């Protein structure tokens, strides 16, 4: 903080995560930081005001949103250089993750200003860790596009990445998005739907697109609220299965289920089991 004794001090920009629905998820460090900084840059000052008053935090806030952050970035750095500590928060979750803050942090890094995280909730990470999908590798791809054709391509790219994809979805277009998902990848495409995480009506649904559509159509209240969609990556196919592996597969195939045969052959030839199985099934059409 700025006072006469430390007027030479350079301030810090704290990137503070706030809850995505349950105020109890605000960390002790976040509370301490928000209480101590000189200024809070908030996506929506009224929204953040409610959080601050819940925790009895009195702080000076100013608006920092998509439309003004480029202009404000240099001003924030000047304030840091004057010794002020500033916290940057968004309406919910981790700033910069489909939220404002990138222009400011980018300029801070360019100009050598001090930026430090106060980590906490993020809907993408909260969703994927309970999804049942592989978490060894995953990608966050932001909001689904607004237009149908772009959305279909987006879903195809996501699945073709070969790893779990996490995306944010708007309550207004969830059904249209699921129609596009089915159109692009078929009714049987697996999907995980997570809604209202950390809130009273938290819901997870794992199943095919058609099952999810039926689930949401039967109870339209489930379409409302904040939604994360996740898609499993399609295992990469093997371009050139060696002829010896094919011979061995042909022998085993008559004795056991194809999946088991592929497991044995993949082990023997040092290939990925799932990739071999998918390749053979793909070839058989
Ligand atoms: N920065 C936030 C974060 O760290 O998750 C995301 C902000 S983005 C503008 C808002 C979107 O995040 C929502 O439309 C929804 O897709 C997702 N989201 C936020 N809170 C959520 C929650 N409690 N449950 C499910 N999805 C949520």
From TrEMBL:
<dbReference type="InterPro" id="IPR035996">
    <property type="entry name" value="4pyrrol_Methylase_sf"/>
</dbReference>
<protein>
    <recommendedName>
        <fullName>Ribosomal RNA small subunit methyltransferase I</fullName>
        <ecNumber>2.1.1.198</ecNumber>
    </recommendedName>
</protein>
<keyword id="KW-0489">Methyltransferase</keyword>
<dbReference type="InterPro" id="IPR014776">
    <property type="entry name" value="4pyrrole_Mease_sub2"/>
</dbReference>
<dbReference type="InterPro" id="IPR008189">
    <property type="entry name" value="rRNA_ssu_MeTfrase_I"/>
</dbReference>
<dbReference type="Pfam" id="PF23016">
    <property type="entry name" value="RsmI_C"/>
</dbReference>
<keyword id="KW-0949">S-adenosyl-L-methionine</keyword>
<keyword id="KW-0808">Transferase</keyword>
<dbReference type="InterPro" id="IPR053910">
    <property type="entry name" value="RsmI_HTH"/>
</dbReference>
<dbReference type="GO" id="GO:0070677">
    <property type="term" value="F:rRNA (cytosine-2'-O-)-methyltransferase activity"/>
</dbReference>
<dbReference type="InterPro" id="IPR000878">
    <property type="entry name" value="4pyrrol_Mease"/>
</dbReference>
<dbReference type="Pfam" id="PF00590">
    <property type="entry name" value="TP_methylase"/>
</dbReference>
<dbReference type="InterPro" id="IPR014777">
    <property type="entry name" value="4pyrrole_Mease_sub1"/>
</dbReference>
<feature type="domain" description="RsmI HTH">
    <location>
        <begin position="240"/>
        <end position="279"/>
    </location>
</feature>
<dbReference type="InterPro" id="IPR018063">
    <property type="entry name" value="SAM_MeTrfase_RsmI_CS"/>
</dbReference>
<comment type="similarity">
    <text>Belongs to the methyltransferase superfamily. RsmI family.</text>
</comment>
<comment type="function">
    <text>Catalyzes the 2'-O-methylation of the ribose of cytidine 1402 (C1402) in 16S rRNA.</text>
</comment>
<keyword id="KW-0963">Cytoplasm</keyword>
<dbReference type="GO" id="GO:0005737">
    <property type="term" value="C:cytoplasm"/>
</dbReference>
<keyword id="KW-0698">rRNA processing</keyword>
<feature type="domain" description="Tetrapyrrole methylase">
    <location>
        <begin position="12"/>
        <end position="212"/>
    </location>
</feature>
